[in-house]
Amino acid sequence: MSTMTIETPGVPFGRLLRVESEKAVDTRAARWLIAVTALLIIASVGLPLGLPDEFDQSPTGYTGATAIGVLSVFPAVVILLLTTEWTRGTILVTFTQEPRRLRVLAAKGLAGVGLGVLGALLGFAVAMAGVLTADVVLGREVSYAVESAFTGLLAASVLNMLMATGFAALLQNSATAIVVFYVVPAIWGAISVGVLADVGEYLDSNQAFQWILEGDTAGHWPAIFVSMTLWIAIPLAAGAWRVATRDVRS
Amino acid sequence: MIEAMSLTKRFGSATAVADVSFRCEPGTLTGFVGPNGAGKSTTLRMICGLARPDSGTSQIDGVPFAELRNPMRTVGALLEATALHPGRSGLATLKRACSLADMPDERPEELLRLVGLEPAAWTRRVGDYSLGMRQRLGIAQALVGDPRILILDEPANGLDPEGIRWMRSLLRDFADRGGTVLLSSHLLAEVQATVDRLVVIGGGRIVASGGLDELLQGSGTLVRAHDMPALEGALRTAGTGFARREDGALSVDAGAEDVGLIALRAGVALTELREADGGDLEDLFFTLTGGEPLKVAA
């Protein structure tokens, strides 16, 4: 008896990425989160328009405001993309269709990064429209020097999505991942005062994101590097290990 | 071909699956039966690369599942009918699987027709499907890549009698065209009419496996007489082994003809004499698993 072996080419990564990107946005929850994000981005431009004394009338000043919309709700989309697979049990199907688990995780993470890029583009476009409005409609004196307005927003948005991917991969539960992602960095920010203040900036993800966003990186690279390692690289690595090794049980 | 080689899985100190080995050849339909909690799902998940065995290995056409490239083209799996996203429609679910497996665009509708889902249901959310409809969609999803192997965990759950008959003929046809089918069930009667081979699992261990005929033969001849003690005496004299059944009849390790001749020589009038049939397989099942009897679901 002979066994016929047919060499089947594997699923190309691009196809997996396309499928995971579709999965990221085709649920009701995801559509709501994306709509809320778009609304937040548009609404947040009202801050520099309404409070000209508090915000620089420049692209950086305006992206500082739209970043609130870009960075706040979007991570929940990638968290849900990862965690609902485990909580609903669909990971069973996903891994029998593509058993190379780390490729699935990479596709999901990249789908999230893609969303992060789109969010940054929208945040920047809305910010520029805000500056234009301030200039033309409100007749304010504005600056059009883009400087790090776009690159800062883009970097912060992408890193933010990667951080969400790491937390989701590690915790594999929607509620836990969302709570930990949103609450723990805030708690850390609140307690890193006094003695912890000096060490704190090395470990505070919010501070690092602020520097990246504002392009205020000179002299802060070591702190940014340490906090990004702690909040992004380590959760991502541990999450990848957990995804690769965890048994799928009902 | 599906091959399980000494699969063992422990959860903490409890051994869920112990040294499970079997093989499913192309063209055959194997029933994997045992009571709930016997280790069927755990075994199937190990075969599908979803759970790591503590020892032992398994292979699909000679390679571990996790090393299959585009596995949908080789093996279709339905491990849990509820593992479908409730927010997507049946059609969308299949379209996604088809695009991943690189199958033609007309495949999803073809499959939905094949599994007998009404066109009105195609675009409805899976969350609104009955369990039976999900099973049908799950089978459609397993068939997406036109595989030559099917692994189905309790696929008859939630199907009505018509649905069960439909699934039987679908799987029979699949095997007759050279496919390999492994399906599990906690109801022996459900698979008995369909399968060629049985692998019986109880308490995490294989307690019997082989062709359906073989397993049936093993249970011998069923015989009953007016004078049971005389019949037992005659059998003892003839040196033929037997066992008393719960219903009072004897299960004899000999053919019906031999048993009849032994009774004739001893002058014992028989009231029943027949080859053990499917009903006895159920007794065998009961004995083998040592657990609750596996009756047909009401």
UniProtKB/TrEMBL annotation, chain A:
Transmembrane is among the record's keywords: yes
Keyword field: Membrane, Transmembrane, Transmembrane helix
This protein's record includes keyword Metal-binding: no
Membrane spanning stretches: 32-51, 63-84, 105-129, 149-171, 178-200, 220-244
Entry protein name: ABC transporter permease
